[in-house]
Amino acid sequence: MTVNDKPLIVWDLDDVLNNLMEAWFCAYASTSSGSVVGDYQGIVQNPPHQLLGITHSEYLNSLDTFRNSAEGHNLGPNALVLDWFREKGSNFRHMVLTNRPVKTVPGAADWVFRHFGNWVRFFHFVPSPRSGEDLPAYDSNKGECLTWLGKADALVDDSPENIRAAQELGLEVFTFPQPWNDSEHSVCELLNKVSRISIRQPVGAFY
């Protein structure tokens, strides 16, 4: 198999390659005096601010602070996913596509290439809007970014919205199991399915 025969898998970063929400939630729950759901499995909505009894802005500020903290920078990779990369990663091309505010992207890129740089060759982000920012208008969501890219064969993501957008473009999609989505597979089952991805045939104007 030549390098051009290898399918391109697009990976979400947060809550797929790492366990960001779980780590943030544990830190938040340990210091918050407000209303908190019982445990991480109770985070059945993302964003979870209503479950936690806080505003959306309070949640984003807390999450962004955690992302840029030493604990956020030192998050370990998802062990099962990293094991899959070590065993199967060289059979595919890999790209990371994340939704993040600009101020947290440098740390995110560093994290990706520290842990997955043997396999990942592309890092791209769609800015999550934050107040006070004035950014050029490119892609507003992952669906638009994937349309522009035009080369992806599959998406692994925890967001039902992103999964639907990729599915409409003809990509193979894999919903990474988290409490807020309806994935029917364990992580191991999902990764076994990812191992069988093939290069998809051109569909309409997407290529």
Walk me through what this model shows.
- The chain has 207 residues and is of the alpha/beta class.
- Helix content is 38%, strand content 14%.
- The chain contains nine helices and five strands; from the N terminus they run E-H-H-H-H-H-E-H-E-H-E-H-E-H.
- It has a five-stranded parallel β-sheet, sandwiched between helices.
- Helix 6 links the parallel strand 2 and strand 3.
- Helix 1 crosses helix 3.
- The longest helix is centred in the N-terminal third of the chain and has 12 residues.
- It is globular.
Order of helices and strands: EHHHHHEHEHEHEH
Radius of gyration (CA) equals 17 Å
Terminal Cα separation, in Å? 22 Å
**Secondary structure: helix percent:** 25-40%
Strand count, sense and barrel status of the largest sheet are: 5 strands, parallel
Shape: globular
| Poorly predicted spans | 203-207
Quaternary arrangement of the chains shown?
single chain
Number of strands: 5
Helix-strand category? alpha/beta
β-strand percent reads: 5-15%
How are the strands of the largest sheet arranged?
A: 3-2-1-4-5
Tally of DSSP helical segments: 9
Question: Quick check: average pLDDT?
Answer: 93
Secondary structure layout plus pairing:
Blueprint: E1 8-11, H1 20-31, H2 49-52, H3 56-67, H4 70-73, H5 79-88, E2 93-100, H6 105-116, E3 120-127, H7 142-149, E4 154-157, H8 160-168, E5 172-175, H9 187-194
Parallel strand pairs: 1-2, 1-4, 2-3, 4-5
Helix pairs in contact: 1-3
Outline of this structure?
The protein has 207 residues and is an alpha/beta fold. It is built from nine helices and five strands, in the order βαααααβαβαβαβα.
